[in-house]
Amino acid sequence: MKLLAFLLVALGAYGCSIPTVSLAKGSREYVAADYSQVLNRWTRAESLLSLPELDDKLTVTATYQSWDFRWAYVVRYAQDYRLTVEQRRVLFETSLGESDQVHEFFVALYGTTPRWADLAKPTSSWVVRLIDDMGSETAPERIEAILRPGALERRYYPYTSVWRRAFRIRFPRVAADGRPTLAAAAHWFGLRFAGAEGNQELRWHLAAGGP
Fold it and tell me: 13 in a domain, yes or no?
């Protein structure tokens, strides 16, 4: 009972301080040192535990590649790799342009059975969807497995490890019927991982104004 009470208090405290994000575009004034803070703002993590065994069925960490995140990423990358002004400009145009075309996430996850945790294969026990609180649900248009995460993934997404599978998951911004895949009135959007072993959601709560 004491453990349950502690968890309820902790969840209540968390619920009162849920961080919000904004999908607004525009220029930023980030420097390379700001990257870690921006990464944390756009990253969510959850674990699906099976009770009473406390078996960790799925642990997922994901970063949404928003306009804001991409800006900070390019600034950090440009400094690390000593890009020229022209190279930096091209990287900005390419990366920010992609944010107008797709909703993209960098995802690293751990599952009790590695073969079932490979989202890019039909043998995966998990189905991932882009969702929001207005009932929108969208399947990925592409899931790219990163077979051997290297220095770049380890540096820019430090939650990547040899124990986790890494993916880039892309969703269309516009559905086949012409509607945006994230509703204009949405208060949050997220990723849902569902399967026979359970389901888990990662949510990004939006500041006033929605997508």
Answer: no
